[in-house]
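Example record for the data management plan.
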Amino acid sequence: MERELKTRILKKFGLRSLIVFIIWMILYHGFIIPDGRLNQFLTGTVITGTLGGLNLLGHNSVREDNYVLINNEPVVLVADNCNGLELFVLYAGFIICFPGRISYKLIFIPVGIILIYIINVIREIVLALNYKFFRETFEFNHKYTYVLIVYIFVFILWRIWIKRYSIISEKYSRA
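Corresponding structural encoding:
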């Protein structure tokens, strides 16, 4: 029985994931990218958060277009694909598709997105400082290290969801 239940849950999750993915691709490429306002807003908030963090750490930082400058030197370009939108959707899509109580999802999704946003801003702050002080390691860290850290964080959130709030946790906590 336990194996049948797991199989049924995984099939349902896979089907829901495929549907959410198709809907997201249509929305993102058909409306969000062409319109540009959501990406512009999110990119702006990430830049604002990055500037706030850098200034809090004592670095004279300002914004010029989508560039973050420290002491008038460009250190980081925050492109639209770095604003976290696709990661927010990936995270929320997983929670939406994985069986669990809607009341838990309505709390866990926004809290997780806020935490991912904060981690992304910290990532941009560290990237800016990485570029300023250790320029030779910037490309590697930008492509691998910091991206890996953010995805591990999202994975941990998913794991918490599955173990504490999903239908699986409810079924096995009673056993």
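Summary line stored alongside the record: The CA atoms of residues 159 and 165 lie 10 Å apart.
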